[in-house]
Amino acid sequence: MADSSVRSTLSMWRPLRAPIFRNLLIADVVSDVGTFMQSVGAAWLMISLSAGPIYVALIQTASALPFFIFALPAGAIGDIVDRRRLILYTETWMLAVAIAVAVLTITGWISPLLLLILTFALSSGDAFETPTWRAVLPEVVPKEDLPAASALNGIEFNFARAVGPGLAGFIVAAAGVGTAFLLNAASFIGVIAVIARWKRLVPRRTSPPETVWGGTIAGLRYIRYSPAIRRLLLRTGFVIFFATALTALLPLIARDVKNSPITFGILLGCFGFGAVVGAVLMQRARARWSAEIVVSVGVAIYGLATLAASTVRVFPALCGATFVGGSAWVMFISLVNVLVLNYSPDWVRARVLSISTLVVQGSVAAGSAVWGTVAAHFGLRAALLWAGAGTIATTALALFLRLPDATVDVTAWNHWPLPGLDGNALPAGYDSGPVLVTAEYEVPPENVREFLKAIRRYGRIRRRDGASRWGIFHDLEHVGRYVETFIVSSWAEHVRQHERMTRADRELEERLQRYSRGSPTVRHLLSVAQDE
Question: pLDDT tens-digit profile of 409-420?
Answer without folding.
Answer: 888 887 777 776
